[in-house]
Every structure is written in C-alpha cells, then in structure tokens.
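README, section 4: Worked example with a bound small molecule

Sections 1 through 3 covered apo chains. Here we extend the same pipeline to holo records, where the ligand is supplied as SMILES alongside the sequence. The molecule in this example is nicotinamide-adenine-dinucleotide. Nothing else about the input changes; the structure line simply encodes the ligand pose together with the chain.
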Amino acid sequence: MAKPQVLLLGAIDHATEAWSSLSSIADIIEPKSRSRAEFIEECKSGAFANVVAAYRTFPSVAITGMIDEELVPILPKSLKFIAHNGAGYDQIDVHACTARNIRVSNVPTAVDDATADVNMFLILGALRGFNTSMIALRNGQWRGSPPPPLGHDPQGKVLGILGMGGIGRNLMKKAAAFGMTTQYYNRSQLSEELSGGAKYVTFDELLATSDVLSLNLPLNKQTRHIISTAEFSKMKKGIVIVNTARGAVMDEDALVKALESGQVWSCGLDVFEEEPKIHPGLIANPNVMLVPHMGTWTVETQTKMEEWCIENVRSALEKGVLKSIVPEQKNM
Ligand SMILES: NC(=O)c1ccc[n+]([C@@H]2O[C@H](COP(=O)([O-])OP(=O)(O)OC[C@H]3O[C@@H](n4cnc5c(N)ncnc54)[C@H](O)[C@@H]3O)[C@@H](O)[C@H]2O)c1
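The generated complex, written as structure tokens:
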C-alpha cells in the first residue's frame, strides 16, 4: 500500500533524525513554488492530491502567504492535518480550517523558557534604560552626554501579565527571582496551583495598578489592538511595557505617542505589527529595547520545537489525532 504523503512547508534545520524517521511511515514532498500565486497554481494542479498532513514553519508564509479563507478551500481535499511549528498560529485561519475539517496543531510548552527569558531580558533592559548608553558606548561616547537618566530596579515592582498561559506563568517564576510581584488578567481565572499565588485582577485593574505590563496573549480578532490609546490613558504614568506575543496586540502608533508623552516610560519589544518593518517612531526612540523576534532563537529551543511538531505529524499519521491540537478545535 502507498504511504501517506506529508507536505513540508519550510525547512527542518535541527531535528533531522526525527524527521528522517518519519520517512518509514510517509513520503515527504515539497512544493516547487516560490510565491503564493505559484503555490495556489501548484495546489490546483493536483500536485498535492495525496497529502494527508502538512508540516509548516513561520517563515514558510513567504511562499504560501497566510493560510486564510482564500487558500484553505484550495488546499488538497486529502489534507486532514496542519502541524504548525510555533506557539502562535495567527498565520492560520483556524475557523476556515475547521469548516474544511482540517485539524491544526501548534507548539506550546517547548517555547516557554526561551521566550520568557527574552521577556525578562526586555523587562530588565527597559527598566534600567540600558539601550541609550549601549548605543553611546558603541559611538565612542561612554555613557553619552548628558548621561542617561537613572533606571529603575525590578525589586518591589508589580508585574502585570496579560495572558497567563505557558509563557506568562514561566515569566512569573523568573520575575519572582528578581523581587517582582505578579498580578494577571486572563480569559479565565487560573487554579491556585497554576497561578502560583499571583493575584487575578480585572483588565482595567491590571492597567491601572501595574508598574510593568507584559503582553503574553495570542493575536486573534478579539485581541488585535487590545492595548491602544484608551488603555494607555488608564495606565500608571511612567509604566514600562514589554511585548513578546505579537506586535498587533498593541497599537504601535498609539504606543509611540504614549512614549513621546511620557505616559509610557520605556518599552521592550520582540515583536512588531508589520515585521520586518519597524515603526519609525520606535527606531527614533533610543530609550526603547528592540529585538528582532528572537524569542525562541536558540539551538535547544528550535530543536525542541521541531521535534514537537514532528511528533504531531507522526501522531496524526499513526493515530489520526494531533498531540497538541489548538484550543479552538479541542472538541473536534
Ligand atoms: N516572541 C516569540 O518568539 C514568541 C514565542 C512563542 C510564543 N509567542 C507568542 O506568545 C503567545 C503566548 O504564548 P503561550 O505559549 O504562552 O500561549 P498560551 O496559549 O499558553 O497562553 C495564552 C494565554 O492567553 C490567554 N488569553 C487568550 N485571549 C485572551 C484575552 N482576550 N484576554 C486575556 N487573556 C487571553 C489564554 O487564556 C492563555 O492563558 C503566543 O500566542 C505567540 O503569539 C511569541
């Protein structure tokens, strides 16, 4: 009997052994396309007619474009599973996939430590205002002239986490080691054990009483620009904001204005609304910490993520179920 086909969208860079071992149960094929238009034509040509599962990476969007309402109906009828290598799956229209009976998985958990580490790095860097003096030093001006204002200690500060999932909870533990107290707002309140004693507050309370606000919730229609002008005006003056989730959960135009007015003292960003484009107002502000989406950019974590995603493909082929189906499809 012919083996099922798996479509590889993107590259496997680390977990090469685990990937090779899949070939005993599946035939791996790759698209020839180099653009979305070509990919759509390739789908329509029947080239993927026997594909049961697709493994996709975040950068593969450069070839396929978003897995959206336009693309999903064109995908091969045989396709039953999309295994996405990433925690955030905002590139995939899950609703459209559900309508076509395609199950989608993401990679939670494996990303937690590395992303929370970057989160903590951004909190410390933004609180201390290190960016200005790091730029001055490289320009041969030591700390700069005049020297930068004094920074702030994390000790004793209230960290507000918006979205207390895997990364938020991991961050809470790291922040505790730096003397911060955590409060959170989440779609639903966590059990005492999961929340680790962090106080559950309303969304407005979180804005009004946090010294540092960390955005750790997924991007979707409900969360796009969840932080904008009205929300900045409810925050403590001089708040520090960090975002490792997705750029578009915060309105960047409004953020730049809030930074300019001093309502926001500083921020640390790993993600941006229109990556790789960066808002000129952020580039122009030497006080902010900017990292080019490197939350999981480590050998260890990239390897774990690929292995996890491959396990999803294997489980789909062998058992007909995904190991970590996305929450929206839990009852499918
Ligand atoms: N910068 C990076 O490299 C990087 C790496 C991994 C993940 N991420 C991003 O971080 C996000 C969080 O990752 P995670 O693994 O912690 O996800 P998760 O699913 O474990 O946690 C997300 C939490 O947000 C909560 N939430 C959802 N909608 C909400 C809303 N409207 N209001 C309040 N809370 C809400 C959920 O209940 C959940 O507890 C991902 O969606 C992804 O976009 C970025």
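What to look for in the output: Residues 87-88, 108, 111, 115, 162-168, 185-187, 216-219, 222-223, 244-246, 270-271, 293, 295-296 surround nicotinamide-adenine-dinucleotide (CB under 6 Å). Residues 53 and 81 are 5 Å apart (CA to CA).

Section 5 describes how to batch many such records.
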